[in-house]
Amino acid sequence: MALDPIELELRQDPLAFFLHLSRTSPDITTFRFASGKEIVFLNHPDLIREVLIERAEAFHKSDLTRAFAGGMGNGILVSEGEFWKQQVRIMRPAFHYKRLQGYAEVMRRFTLEMLSHWQNGEIRHLEEDMNALTLRVVAKCMFDVEAGEDREIMHRAIMLGQKVVGEMVYGWLNLPHWHPGLNRDGIRVVRALNDMVSRHIACRRARGELGDDLLSMLLEAQKDPQVALSDRQLRDEVLTVITAGLETTANALVWTWYLLDRHPEVRARLEAEVDALGGPPGFEEVQRLPYLDQVFKESLRLYPPVWIIGRENVEALELGGMQLPPRTQIVMSQWATHRDPRFFEQPEAFIPERWTPEFEKSLPKGAYFPFSLGPRVCTGQGFATVEYKIIVATVLQRFRLELARPAPVRPEPNFTLCPHGGLPMRVRAR
Predict the structure, then answer these.
(1) How many Å apart are CA 193 and CA 149, to the nearest integer?
(2) Is 421 helix (H, G, I), strand (E, B) or coil?
(3) d(Cα 299, Cα 305) in Å, to the nearest integer?
(4) Residue 205 and residue 185: Cα distance in Å, rounded?
(5) Which residue would you say has higher pLDDT here, 12 or 100?
């Protein structure tokens, strides 16, 4: 059966599809597939802010989000209502600002260990290095475990998971009665990850001692009869944190290395800033790197790891002058909104200097949302920001990275926005 033209365009290049839609459509628009599925696309910060912040209780995570979440169960990423609020209360202390100082030392140490294996002039696959590094960091900081033997499991899971998620998202868009589910490959991925997580939980229980990491908080909360936290739910939370905290930060880093190579003037200025520290960057030091902060924000604008999010309204309501029946599927795309020329001059250009305090103050809330917005904003935003800055500053003090394949590199929209075919780069000692 021939595909509907819209379906064909979306399958071939989802990023171009949503960008074209944002440039040619009203602030709220719909598109329909041959399957009969209708999607509402929000194309203005005011509407995005209304859904994610002002009327957040009226909207739940959509089938799209559940598709992207894949096999992470009912973790904090997809749960709703009072159960979600319970999860936030339990988990939020692990991401408190004061804890970031201790985490920063782990981030720096693991980054230096990674760099000790780099040889001047060799080609490194940066997507693999960044995934391995962020896995080590999140496993140690959140669960007090070394991730050595799990690296291969996670690498296989990521590679296969990208394929599985792509198939699930296509199903969400094109099959009239589709519901989130996993094929055989997806089941294999989830089983391997569940076994890995269950093993770490069992080891912690066998040790009989609790620390102040996230896993300890979850195990302690499980003892409270007022808290609904089964073993399966505990496993779902651990898996969600590992998966969401690994690939999103890793791809933010990968795209930054790519952008710095394509813009040597930005790289030179950033190198000068981190060199001026006079030593390895720590938690306090990265707070005093304003240009790194601008590079961080501009990298996430152009290549947001989470490139699309979905919601559905719980009950019938009006949004942007449009009447929506219950469970209407709503889509917002960071990829498209972050390139809106109404709010970003030269939207396709990499210009970190645009991120002045005056610009940020003038930018409508909802025009820039790499970590989402409102009550469902990413719980680990502070953790990810410090991790990114520690890693970038530490690497730049020691190495210059050069693209080792023809440019440009095409972004591939899977669970996160990753470089198609990976990102091999030659590392030059400074």
Answers:
(1) 12
(2) coil
(3) 10
(4) 31
(5) 100
Nearest-angstrom CA–CA distance, 424 and 419: 10
168 neighbors 214 (Cβ within 8 angstroms) = no
Please give the C-alpha separations between residue 208 and each of 203, 205, 227, 292, in angstroms, as whole numbers. Answer: 9, 5, 21, 42
How does strand 309-313 pair with strand 123-125?
Answer: unpaired
Query: Rounded distance, CA 68 to CA 344, Å?
Result: 28
User: Any idea which of 75-79, 214-218, 398-402, 403-407 has the lowest mean pLDDT?
Assistant: 75-79
Q: Which residues of 179-206 are buried (b: 16+ CB within 10 A; e: fewer)?
A: ebebeeebebbbebbbebbbebbeebee
For residue 32 the two structure tokens come to 């329909």
What's the distance, CA 108 to chain centroid? 21
> What SS3 state is found at 330?
strand
Phi, psi for residue 175 in degrees, rounded to 5: -105, 125
pLDDT digits (tens, 9 = 90+) for 83-141: 888 888 888 888 888 889 999 999 999 999 999 999 999 999 999 999 889 988 988 88
The answer to whether residues 157 and 242 touch, using CB atoms and an 8 Å cutoff, is no
The H or E element that residue 327 is part of is: none
What is the residue-wise DSSP string for 152-181?
Answer: HHHHHHHHHHHHHHHHHHHHHHH-TT----
Alpha-carbon span 298 to 344, nearest angstrom: 11
Q: What is the DSSP letter of 144?
A: -
104 token code pair:
């920063």
CA pair distance 241, 200, nearest whole angstrom: 14
CB-based burial of residue 156 (10 Å sphere; 0-12 exposed, 13-18 middle, 19+ buried)?
middle
Neighbours of 257 (CB within 10 A): 26
Q: In the chain, where are the structural domains located?
A: 5-429
pLDDT of residue 173: 54
**DSSP state letters, 243-271:** HHHHHHHHHHHHHHHHHHHH-HHHHHHHH
Q: Do residues 77 and 389 lie in contact, with contact meaning Cβ atoms separated by under 8 Å?
A: no
Stated pTM of the model:
0.91
Classify domain 5-429 at the CATH topology level.
Cytochrome p450 (1.10.630)
Tokens of 145: 């475990």
Of 161, 162, 174, 160, the residue nearest 11 (C-alpha) = 174
In Å, how far are 185, 230, 272 from 233, measured between CA atoms? 22, 5, 47
Q: Which residues contact 353 (CB under 8 A, 6 or more apart)?
A: 294
